[in-house]
Amino acid sequence: MVESHMKTSSKQQTTMTSDIASELAVMVLPSGKVVSLKKLHHLEAKEPTFDKSFKNEVQILTNIRHRNIVKLYKFCLHNTCMFLVYEYMERGSLFCALRFDTEDVELGWTQRVKIVKAITHAISYLHHDCNLPIVHRDISSNYILLNFKLEAFVSTLALQDYYI
User: Best label site of 3, 4, 24, 105, fewest CB within 10 Å?
Assistant: First the structure.
């Protein structure tokens, strides 16, 4: 059912998540809204601690509210499908914007400073303003996403150790 609405993910989105446990795709909802879909592999689901781990991740992500952190919209946990549905970032990862020569992404120094400020505000929020401090564990250009206005958002896809 969900696969019928999926589009092929872009090079940037594929680069962003190359881990074995999950993959990221772009999905168009029946309403026309475009979202990012983190599909968790079934091998991971067979681990005894997976259900608890998944529920912990969802609980933490649903409580994160910051302008510069990618939003988690929905989730699905079922024997045959496990998904996290996130806000879609049109410009993909900062890694791709810096690394690949793309005509549509031009990052001057003013824009780069805005990106750094947005990232630091998001990290400060995770460390100081959440009920329990959260450690991201993989702040890299692969986990910094850009929207169509080139505003930066920290992706929570890499959260591994939730509490300090």
Answer: 4
pLDDT number for residue 2 = 36
Instruction: Report yes or no on 163 lying in a domain.
Output: no
Q: Give φ, ψ of 72 to 5 degrees.
A: -95, 120
With a CB cutoff of 8 Å and minimum separation 6, the contacts of 43 are none
* 154 has a pLDDT exceeding 60: yes
Q: Give this prediction's pTM.
A: 0.74
Other CB atoms within 10 Å distance of the CB of residue 117: 12
Domain count, the chain: 1
The Cα–Cα gap between 122 and 133 comes to: 12
DSSP letters for 117-161? HHHHHHHHIIIIISSS----S--SGGGEEE-TT--EEE-GGG--S
Catalytic residue positions, numbered: 138
